[in-house]
Design a protein that fits this description.
Layout lengths: L7 H11 L9 E5 L5 H9 L4 E6 L2 H10 L7 E5 L5 H4 L6 E7 L7 H14 E12 L5 H23 L5 H15 L6 H10 L4 E8 L2 E7 L1
Parallel strand pairs: 1-2, 1-4, 2-3, 4-5
Antiparallel strand pairs: 5-7, 6-7
Helix pairs in contact: 1-2
Amino acid sequence: MDIWHPNRVKMASVVCEVLPFNRTEHLRVLDLGAGTGYLSHKIIEMFPRAEIIAVDAAALMIEKAKARLNNRLEHVTFHVSTFQDLPKTMDAHSSVDAVVSSFALHHLYREEKLTLLNYVQSILRPHGWFINCDVLKTADAVLEARFRRLYYQGIQERTREIRHEEKSLDEISSALSDKEKESGDNPLCLMDELQIIAEAGFRTAECFWKEYQEAVYGGIK
């Protein structure tokens, strides 16, 4: 992640800054696609009394999250589920103060994302927040090509600094293309993402931070 998505540090910081809760509040936060638990860990650091429900489809990722959150396990409930099955596998009476996600929802097609956000909106308490950190695409082909080249150059520099390896831009482009196909990536434009949030019934949809093809955005119930 330090090579592919170095902005995740900034993005997690934005999530914690934007959430308008007192640090001493007992919050319930659903982390969609919790992965290795990076964002969950940052939220617990900011809100020490938070209760996290960490959801991921991969049991291996849940195990990695447990390892990262080893000293905070009393704050976390782990739940193995796909996004599509989540409404059927979660407690029907669940209610949460916030729903967050990081580099996970871009795997969904538009209709799948809308279905998920309808569910998210239904379990959020009044004035609850949804915040997503994710990758985007742009509708303009020139901008898309420029943003991707800047992304490749950044990966090239970080590979050199962190791994002490030299990779050509063509090698990086090919590796990224393979990674996106394997992961089934379906990134949308920012305007489409905000439209989905609005369609799901949130009273507001806003972008809180953006750099090229990465953004932090969400809405308030």
